[in-house]
Design brief:
This protein is an alpha+beta fold. It is built from 5 helices and 6 strands; from the N terminus they run ααβααβββββα. The protein has helices at about 1-20, 25-30, 55-65, 80-85, 170-215, and strands at about 45-55, 105-110, 120-130, 135-140, 145-150, 155-165. It has a 6-stranded antiparallel β-sheet, covered by helices on one side. This is SRPBCC family protein.
Length: about 220
């Protein structure tokens, strides 16, 4: 049993872990500096994940601005989030009242009276560049960066980076490795795919409305 467990852990570490920590990202995206990296200059852990969105950055950005419990949600797996009592409600529309954020604002990950309080129960807006970058920082010092790179007028690369400060205890590292990394990847990938789908539908809706306004002109 011990050998089997050791084999599973080794396989996960060597094969699967390296894949999910850089899911979808290119070598250039993994190695480049992003806004907010300076807040954790010597991280003990870093993940960089990316996805291509077939929509302009201005159609992706409003969904990022709405992130948070009690706001637009996290666009991920609602049943899993609420199975642990997080009280997340994901929206499928842009809410104008949630389109204003400033540095210093707080974004909750779970509701205020959540049974398990942690350094990332809520995060603080540290950097914000409209249509480009949102950087959140937890009370543990770790950062969560959402960055948009326009490829062309109709395509955007959506990059999400997480940086963790050095863990003070071995137990803290083990808990992060065993209980945090994989669940976080599953939910973060759901978030990225959720934003991709919503932004692309928004672009399609805009195109449909634009087409409907154009009267048909028969050729002569």
């Amino acid at each position: 049993m011990v050998l089997l467990l050791a084999g599973l852990v080794t396989s996960y570490h060597v094969l699967f872990r390296s894949w999910h920590r850089t899911w979808g990202a290119t070598d250039e995206e993994i190695s480049r500096q992003l806004p907010g990296d300076d807040l954790v200059p010597e991280p003990s852990d870093e993940t960089t994940r990316a996805i291509t969105v077939e929509a302009p950055s201005e159609d992706v950005w409003p969904w990022i601005m709405q992130l948070g419990q009690g706001r637009g949600g996290f666009y991920s797996y609602t049943r899993l989030e609420n199975l642990v009592g997080a009280d997340i409600h994901n929206v499928d529309r842009i809410l104008p009242e949630l389109q204003e954020l400033e540095e210093g604002d707080s974004i909750r990950m779970v509701h205020e009276e959540y049974w398990l309080q942690s350094p990332v129960t809520s995060m603080t807006v540290r950097r914000i560049e409209p249509d480009r970058t949102l950087v959140l920082q937890g009370h543990d010092g770790g950062t969560w960066t959402f960055h948009l790179d326009p490829v062309n007028e109709e395509t955007t690369r959506f990059i999400v980076r997480g940086r963790k400060p050095k863990t003070r205890t071995v137990l803290g590292y083990v808990l992060r490795y065993l209980a945090y990394e994989l669940p976080h990847f599953i939910m973060e990938r759901g978030l990225m795919r959720g934003i991709k789908g919503r932004a692309e539908r928004l672009g399609q809706d805009k195109s449909s409305r634009s087409s409907s306004r154009c009267p048909y002109r028969p050729s002569i």
